[in-house]
Write a structure and sequence with these properties.
Layout lengths: L5 E6 L1 H18 L6 E6 L3 H8 L7 E8 L12 E4 L9 E9 L3 H11 L5 E9 L12 E5 L5 E2 L15 E4 L1 H8 L3
Parallel strand pairs: 2-3, 2-5, 5-6, 6-7
Antiparallel strand pairs: 1-9, 3-4, 8-9
The protein binds 1-O-pyrophosphono-5-O-phosphono-alpha-D-ribofuranose (PRP), guanine and magnesium ion.
Magnesium ion (MG) binds next to loops.
């Protein structure tokens, strides 16, 4: 079973629900009277996006961008591939980029440069997880759900080799799962 691959739960389903509601309330207060566009960075952010937007009570729009830099490994390739661009223009609009995790910062650093060149009125970053110990690019988030240690986490949208996104909590995999995949031991 999928959950047999999990060594331990880092953030429970109840903790996620509580914190995502708080972030939604904070964003609602900060954007009162405005109509931000929330930009979900696929695929990892799909669950956070769906839950977060249901806790925002101002008018807001949603758009989606798909990028990938990890492939099937646990270390950033450093190369960010745009797989799907936004559907609408963001010029003159208030943009909130919604991410599942800020790790090395490669993905967001690249994406922010790209989106800022389109002249939004403002641009902020909301990330569910922040792993500051691994940062190699100068980028900080405006809204952070949880800080996480230097471990590869899965669940609530986050994958290892495209598996585990559908776990309802954030967990850490058993080392044997990586070793099997990498063909070690
Ligand atoms: O700060 P970084 O080191 O760049 O890591 C963060 C990025 O890595 C993951 O995406 P991934 O490339 O695995 O694509 P996915 O969302 O489709 O899983 C995650 O969703 C972030 O977008
Ligand atoms: N699943 C997953 N994807 C990531 N992308 C960057 N860091 C991580 C991580 O810890 N877990
Ligand atoms: Mg991934």
């Amino acid at each position: 079973m999928m959950k047999d691959d999990i060594e331990r739960i880092l953030i429970s389903q109840a903790e996620l629900e509580r914190r995502v509601a708080e972030l939604g309330a904070q964003i609602s207060a900060d954007y009162a009277g405005k109509e931000p566009i929330l930009v979900s960075v696929l695929r990892g952010s799909y669950i956070f996006m769906a839950d977060l937007t249901r806790h925002i009570d101002t008018f807001c729009r949603v758009d989606f961008m798909a990028v990938s830099s990890y492939g099937s490994g646990t270390v950033s390739s450093g190369q960010v591939n745009i797989i799907k661009d936004l559907s609408d223009s963001i010029e003159g609009r208030d943009v909130i980029v919604v991410e599942d995790i800020l790790d090395s910062g490669n993905t967001l650093h690249y994406l922010f440069q790209l989106l800022k060149a389109r002249h939004p009125a403002s641009i902020r970053l909301a990330t569910l997880l922040d792993k500051p110990s691994r940062r190699t690019k100068p980028i900080t988030a405006d809204y952070v759900g949880f800080e996480v240690p230097d471990e590869f986490v899965v669940g609530y949208g986050l994958d290892f080799d495209e598996r585990y996104r559908n776990l309802p909590y954030i967990g850490i995999l058993k080392p044997s799962v990586y070793k099997d995949k990498l063909g070690l031991e």
